[in-house]
Specification:
With 65 residues, the chain is mainly β. The chain has a domain of 44 residues. A three-stranded antiparallel sheet has the order 1-2-3, with no helix packed on it. Strand 2 and strand 3 form a beta hairpin. The longest helix has 6 residues. The radius of gyration is 13 Å and the shape is globular.
């Protein structure tokens, strides 16, 4: 998978809602967010440890450089 192209498709979208963290059995939950961009259908993103979905992860949020 070309990760650059995969993540670039989110450029210009803004987080409009935090949906919460999924809870399924004993698996770490995935933080879920709704993103919006004028002229496009809303999308949902989930934060995972890896591309295989092996459990919830952590999203570092900070100032841009």
């Amino acid at each position: 998978m070309n990760e650059d192209n995969y993540y670039k498709q989110l450029e210009g979208f803004k987080i409009t809602k935090f949906l919460g963290v999924t809870t399924e059995d004993d698996i770490d939950g995935f933080p879920q967010f709704v993103l919006a961009k004028k002229g496009f259908k809303d999308v949902m993103i989930e934060v995972s440890r890896d591309a295989e979905g092996n459990g919830g992860g952590f999203l570092f949020i900070g100032d841009t450089k």
